[in-house]
């Protein structure tokens, strides 16, 4: 039931992001010169590296889910033996990658603000910061969810089916956030 509820909730989140995409394309269609002027300031190679980190975090998240499905909460070998990692190690790595992504977005915001691209400066700035900012908030929510799942594994005496389900549900959310970012990245950084 939890997984089904999560999928339904993510569907409503999809509608929210669809509205942001619609606003982006609508405002872009009426101000193409504004878009050309502002997209020149985007650091596409940096954003691509940041995107790659986020997309790879989806892989590490899924490896953690596979470990949870096997009932393996912690590693069974040394820290350097990746194939023997459990849910905790994969989710900690995923958390770190997500945190690096958020920090990368913050760096990008600082650079853009220094160049005069602010939320109040233009319609481009408004839509850019709303779209990427709401996504960033969703990533931060995913990071909190990873901490909660990890905390439960450390507090519990035994790894249970319910904890595995929690890990799976968090992975649904994380994969959703990653897919949305791929769409945002393509829309904002590649279709200029």
Can you describe this structure?
Its EC number is 7.1.1.9. Keywords: Membrane, Transmembrane, Transmembrane helix. Its main location: membrane. Helix content is 80%, strand content 0%. The chain contains six helices and no strands. It has helices at residues 2-30, 32-39, 44-69, 87-114, 123-155, 161-190. Helix 4 (87-114) packs antiparallel against helix 5. The mean pLDDT is 88.
Oligomer: single chain
* Count of extended strands: 0
* Chain-averaged pLDDT: 88
Radius of gyration: 19 Å
- Gap between N and C termini: 42 Å
**In sequence order, what are the helices and strands, one letter per element?**
HHHHHH
Flag low-confidence runs.
none
Tally the helices: 6
Strand content: under 5%
* Share of residues in helices: over 70%
Main β-sheet description: none
Please tell me the CATH architecture by its name.
Up-down Bundle
Helix/strand-derived category reads mainly alpha
User: Please, what is the CATH homologous superfamily?
Assistant: Cytochrome c oxidase, subunit III, four-helix bundle
Counted up, domains total 1
CATH class: Mainly Alpha
Shape: elongated
Which key phrases capture this entry?
mainly alpha; Four Helix Bundle (Hemerythrin (Met), subunit A); 6 helices; 0% strand
SSE blueprint:
Blueprint: H1 2-30, H2 32-39, H3 44-69, H4 87-114, H5 123-155, H6 161-190
Helix pairs in contact: 1-5, 1-6, 3-4, 3-6, 4-5, 5-6
A few lines on this structure:
The protein is mostly helical. The chain contains 6 helices and no strands.
């Amino acid at each position: 039931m939890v997984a089904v509820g999560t999928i339904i909730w993510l569907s409503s989140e999809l509608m929210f992001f669809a509205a942001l995409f619609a606003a982006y394309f609508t405002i872009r269609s009426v101000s193409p010169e504004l878009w050309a002027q502002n997209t020149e300031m985007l650091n596409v190679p940096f954003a691509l590296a940041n995107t790659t980190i986020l997309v790879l975090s989806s892989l590490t998240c899924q490896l953690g889910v596979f470990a949870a499905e096997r009932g393996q909460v912690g590693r069974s070998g040394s820290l350097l033996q990746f194939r023997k990692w459990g849910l905790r190690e994969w989710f900690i790595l995923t958390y770190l990658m997500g945190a690096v992504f958020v920090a990368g977005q913050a760096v990008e915001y600082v650079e853009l603000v220094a160049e005069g691209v602010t939320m109040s400066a233009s319609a481009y700035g408004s839509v850019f910061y709303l779209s990427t900012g709401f996504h960033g908030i969703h990533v931060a929510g995913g990071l909190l969810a990873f901490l909660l799942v990890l905390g439960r594994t450390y507090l519990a005496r035994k790894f249970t089916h319910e904890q595995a389900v929690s890990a799976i549900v968090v992975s649904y959310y994380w994969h959703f956030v990653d897919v949305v970012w791929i769409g945002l990245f393509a829309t904002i950084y590649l279709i200029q």
